[in-house]
Q: What sequence folds into this?
């Protein structure tokens, strides 16, 4: 990724940005996020198939914002998150430089966030068949069985909130679960508390989640929480038409379109 | 620590007959935070209210719960009573033991237990009530009236005569609306224009009315007392100050064969035109779509002949911004496009016409100068068949409602015809005759008895042409469904009254609700017939539902009265039940992260942004801000906010949680 390193270095040298958020070598065979502030730092940038963390999560962190204007290495999932963050007024054209990386590992430079939207229009989110089958099977279960399924699946959760920390769309400075006046969501990691937490998280991502799977990758217990968000994504897509982040389309769940099927209330 | 007083009302026997009110009062008295509880026969009576006031003073109550009827009925009564005893009115709440309990259940232990539960949950809430203070909003004392038909004219005149400024916006070149197209009016048969035109002139001359014709609403922002309207003044292509209305341009215009909208296509007009002789303002506009110059770049004859040089081909649409305090929507109705009725042959046979077209034929200002002549060959028809309910009361045509005016105007049409063509024969096919109204039934009787109009109860199945006659096939359901066939010279369809084609778009621009047929919805079908669900926007006339002239005028005056009431105050007092974005200690300042999803969800456009700054004026944070003047307290934003950064005053998360917990933790 010589091209990426060169571009990142020149952005820092010309002071267009003050930090480059990218992937570097981590422990063992893993990669981790690195924050380059000098052209020399950029030599450590890597990009390969191991780079699955969603770096967009750093764009809204106060610590990173303090470092100045960022450039960000952005493969497809990161691009989608960037667009959703823009739709949610968290970033603007002027607030960052996006170093896009195509699925073929080519560097793509984007003039604007609108250009990202144009690019992503050809790369629609698609839920893999194996997940679709699982979701279908779960939905087909009788309510009591489905309830038992989720109680069991969520049982290992010990509320480390890694899923929240890894999610680029969980950027609230105070999460609902930390709101204790009143305490709507139980903080304890018993069955009820776990259910409340994961249902709440899925609901808060409904119509927003861009299916990057960062939450699942971060979960130390390997809980298939992506099933909730993927299922929600499917529901939104089925009920309200095409899904995906957009700068010009109104937010799905808070806007009205005369063409909405609204089959759920008829 | 709360000191709540609980007052259980018997409501005569309405509550006490099914609920053991003494036990409810006892149970309430044992609840934590309740200082005093009692039951009383009529809490809303003077002694009942005095009891509350007395207890507030005696026991130092910090909250009051009146468990009685719906808060819709008496919440203001009890809040005022509390206020006069020195307690903030928003510390007083009502538990609805009547509609929610005694009226809907039989007398039983469970009913009493439910009443106790209802009171207990509200005690849970009231513990967290905080004093609130009503919100003051200034009022701009100018009204915007949209639509210059009789409804808009009446509203404008009434508001203007009350001493307030009015801007009347009309999309056509002249005010007058459908009423100006009518020949005579039922049930008095007085000439429509004769009674309307004086009002039109009065509008033009009124010092408090600013008239904008050939103009439409582009945008409406703001809230009650403080709207900002953007009006698009379409280019008339003339300088109105210079034009004297002499009409030379109209006589010389070479494009003379444009179907006249005013004459419902039965007459022709020129490209530069005044819709009708009594038009207000009586100055022409150029119809750009049909003008030779706009089409081909050649002609300009009107410019050459204009004695004052008033023609302006380069004029462009102009956007005018207005500050107004109230809006009256009076955009009227349209008649259903009858091409939907292939069985009646409209569009196929020239002599099948609509009721509105018949009005033009009967009108002295119409294309036949008031003589009833059929459109195809100009002959005087010897036999006319009128078809009532053409589209109305017909779910298959998508209009299951009754258009209300057709029975009356059809009787009038037949009558006018009989008066003009003495030997003529008129037959009306009808479903039912609906003539409820002062002197209406007498009018219909007169048509039948004095003018010999034949009424056949039944529907028409088909109209077709044969040997120059229109064969009308129908059925007489009063004669054992006997088939009827009439050879007519002309057929008049009483087509359904429908909403204007642009009604839906207009409603969306103003954020008012509309029904399945695109008629605008009133706030309450009985008690708020001229208000919309958006405060400060009122309805007048047939844009709300089909109406006749007297009803339209009454509603228009009603809407005007509402505007005058609104304008009688310099400031508006609003319920302080509004959403508020929280503030917290630094470094957060607010837990709002500024995603503005709440703004996308708000149905009232009440959410904007606020920049939190430090003492140097530097921006620390950009957060959502709710405009208390616009917010209706619906709570959609509260539910939508992921970080729970918004609360509704009077219905905070804390209050709701406490209420739910009180119910669950029995």
A:
């Amino acid at each position: 990724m010589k091209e990426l390193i060169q571009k990142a270095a020149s952005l820092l040298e010309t002071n267009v940005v003050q930090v480059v958020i990218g992937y570097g070598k981590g422990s063992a065979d893993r990669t981790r996020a690195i924050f380059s502030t000098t052209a020399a730092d950029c030599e450590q940038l890597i990009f390969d198939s191991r780079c699955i963390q969603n770096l967009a999560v750093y764009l809204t962190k106060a610590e990173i914002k303090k470092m100045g204007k960022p450039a960000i290495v952005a493969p497809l999932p990161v691009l989608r998150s960037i667009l959703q963050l823009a739709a949610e007024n968290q970033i603007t054209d002027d607030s960052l430089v996006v170093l896009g990386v195509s699925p073929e590992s080519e560097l793509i430079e984007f003039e604007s966030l609108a250009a990202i939207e144009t690019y992503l229009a050809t790369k629609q989110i698609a839920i893999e068949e194996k997940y679709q089958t699982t979701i279908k099977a779960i939905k087909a279960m009788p309510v009591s069985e489905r309830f038992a399924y989720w109680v069991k699946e969520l049982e290992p959760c010990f509320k480390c909130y890694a899923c929240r920390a890894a999610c680029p769309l969980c950027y609230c400075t105070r999460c609902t679960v930390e709101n204790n006046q009143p305490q709507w969501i139980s903080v304890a990691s018993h069955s009820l508390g776990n259910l409340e937490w994961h249902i709440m998280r899925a609901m808060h991502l409904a119509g927003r989640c861009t299916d990057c799977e960062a939450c699942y990758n971060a979960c130390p217990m390997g809980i298939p929480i992506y099933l909730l968000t993927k299922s929600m994504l499917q529901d939104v897509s089925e009920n309200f038409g095409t899904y995906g982040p957009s700068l010009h389309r109104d937010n799905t769940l808070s806007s009205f379109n005369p063409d909405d099927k609204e089959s759920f209330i008829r | 620590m709360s000191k709540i007083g609980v007052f259980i009302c018997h409501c005569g026997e309405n509550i006490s007959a099914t609920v053991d009110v003494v036990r409810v009062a006892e149970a309430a008295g044992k609840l934590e935070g309740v200082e005093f509880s009692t039951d009383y026969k009529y809490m809303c009576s003077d002694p009942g209210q005095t009891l509350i006031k007395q207890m507030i003073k005696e026991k130092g109550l910090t909250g009051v719960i009146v468990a009685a009827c719906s808060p819709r009925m008496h919440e203001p009564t009890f809040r005022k009573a509390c206020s006069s005893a020195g307690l903030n009115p928003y510390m007083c709440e009502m538990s609805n033991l009547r509609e929610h309990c005694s009226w809907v259940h039989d007398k039983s232990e469970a009913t009493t237990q439910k009443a106790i539960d209802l009171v207990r949950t509200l005690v849970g809430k009231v513990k967290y009530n905080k004093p609130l203070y009503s919100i003051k909003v200034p009022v701009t004392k100018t009204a915007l009236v949209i639509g210059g038909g009789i409804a808009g004219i009446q509203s404008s005149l009434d508001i203007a005569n009350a001493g307030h400024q009015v801007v009347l916006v009309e999309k056509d070149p002249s005010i007058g609306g459908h009423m100006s197209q009518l020949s005579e009016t039922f049930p008095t048969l007085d000439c429509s224009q004769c009674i309307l035109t004086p009002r039109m002139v009065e509008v033009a001359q009124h010092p408090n009315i600013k008239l904008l014709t050939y103009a439409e609403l582009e945008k409406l922002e703001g809230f009650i007392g403080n709207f900002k309207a953007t009006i698009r003044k379409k280019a008339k292509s003339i300088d109105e100050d210079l034009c004297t209305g002499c009409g030379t341009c109209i006589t010389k215009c070479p494009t003379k064969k444009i179907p006249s909208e005013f004459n419902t296509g039965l007459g022709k007009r020129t490209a530069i035109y005044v819709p009708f002789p009594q038009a207000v303002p009586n100055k022409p506009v150029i119809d750009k779509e049909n003008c030779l110059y706009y089409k081909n770049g050649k002609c300009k004859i009107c410019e050459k002949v204009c004695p004052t040089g008033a023609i302006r081909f380069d004029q462009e649409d102009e956007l005018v911004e207005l500050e107004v305090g109230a809006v009256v929507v009076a955009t009227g109705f349209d008649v259903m496009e009858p091409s939907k009725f292939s069985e009646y042959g409209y569009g196929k046979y020239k002599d099948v016409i609509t009721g509105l077209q018949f009005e033009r034929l009967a009108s002295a200002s119409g294309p036949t100068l008031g003589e009833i002549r059929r459109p195809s060959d100009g002959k005087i028809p010897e036999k006319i068949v009128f078809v009532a309910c053409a589209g109305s009361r017909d779910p298959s045509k998508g209009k299951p409602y009754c258009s209300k005016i057709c029975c009356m105007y059809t009787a009038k049409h037949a009558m006018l015809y009989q008066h003009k063509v003495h030997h003529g024969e008129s037959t009306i096919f009808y479903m039912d005759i609906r003539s409820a109204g002062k002197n209406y039934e007498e009018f219909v009787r007169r048509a039948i008895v004095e003018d010999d109009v034949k009424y056949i109860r039944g529907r028409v199945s088909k109209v077709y042409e044969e040997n120059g006659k229109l064969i009308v096939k129908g059925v007489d359901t009063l004669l054992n469904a006997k088939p009827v066939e009439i050879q007519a010279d002309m057929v008049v369809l009483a087509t359904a009254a429908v909403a204007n084609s642009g009604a839906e778009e207009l409603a969306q621009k103003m954020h008012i609700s509309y029904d399945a047929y695109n008629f605008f919805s009133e706030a309450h079908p009985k008690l708020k017939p001229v208000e919309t669900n958006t405060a400060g926007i009122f309805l007048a006339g047939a844009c709300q539902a089909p109406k006749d002239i007297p009803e339209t005028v009454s509603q228009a005056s009603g809407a005007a009265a509402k505007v005058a009431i609104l304008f009688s105050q310099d400031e508006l007092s609003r319920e302080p039940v509004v959403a508020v974005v929280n503030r917290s200690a630094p470094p957060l300042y607010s837990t709002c992260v500024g995603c503005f999803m709440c703004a996308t969800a708000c149905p009232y456009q009440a959410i904007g942004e606020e920049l939190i700054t430090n003492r140097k004026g530097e921006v620390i944070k950009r957060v959502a801000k709710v405009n208390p003047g616009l917010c209706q307290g619906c709570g959609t934003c509260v539910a939508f906010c992921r970080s729970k950064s918004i609360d509704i005053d009077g219905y905070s998360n804390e209050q709701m949680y406490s209420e739910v917990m009180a119910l669950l933790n029995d």
User: Anything to note?
Assistant: The interface with chain A takes residues 584, 588, 591, 593-597, 600-601, 622, 640, 642-645, 653-654, 657-658 of chain B (CB under 8 Å). Residues 248-305 of chain B form one domain. Chain B has five domains: 4-126, 142-234+317-332+500-567, 248-305, 336-498, 579-649.
